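Q: What would this chain look like folded?
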Amino acid sequence: MKLYSRALAIAGFWLCLGPSHAAELDTMAQRMLPCATCHGAQGQATADGYYPRIAGKPAGYLYEQLLNFRDGQRQHAGMSYFLDRQRDAYLQQMAEHFAAQELPYPAPLATKSSAASLARGEVLVRKGDALRKVPACNACHGERLTGLQPAVPGLLGLPFDYITAQLGGWLVGVRHARAPDCMADIVKALAPGDIEVVAAWLAAQPVPLDAKAPRGEISTDRHCGSLEPRQ
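A: My prediction, written as structure tokens:
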């Protein structure tokens, strides 16, 4: 029954997305209801540990990811299908809708990682690894790791499975950003096992009550493709 319900919701997603159906729907919130099947009500994520929270993410970041799914830089069959025929302007509306959702974050789940693993993860997040030329995560994602406006996402409030999957995607080449793809370079420079310890430490951290991403610029000479304007 659960799979059947999810299939019905996904089947309705295409109809709900299309601007041609706007007259049948009162608000953007109604059109985005099928997104709750994977991303939770209002985009605050579900408990399965894989689909991420999209509520409150910077609009520029969400818009870029929607473009990437549509245009093939990020690989997910369902997202690519849903977004295949959507215009840039409508994807921008979607991004702005979810960016405007201000919802509380749940407490982090208890971690099974050892103290030594968490300590290594914290060092990488806060200081990086100079020998491997890996910058600290907070150099790009904000001192509090809550992201930066307009297009840098926060790293807190995400489940371990999702973080490891995305970092692993850059490592094996199934996730990309427009050049210069700094995340791909960083992940490939990590030592074996570092992805898991970084993900474990990030997933174990509580999210500040005032977690809205401030406006700012990254403090490293590496610039992710997502920060460059689309031509």
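Residues 1-5, 219-231 have pLDDT under 50 and may be disordered.
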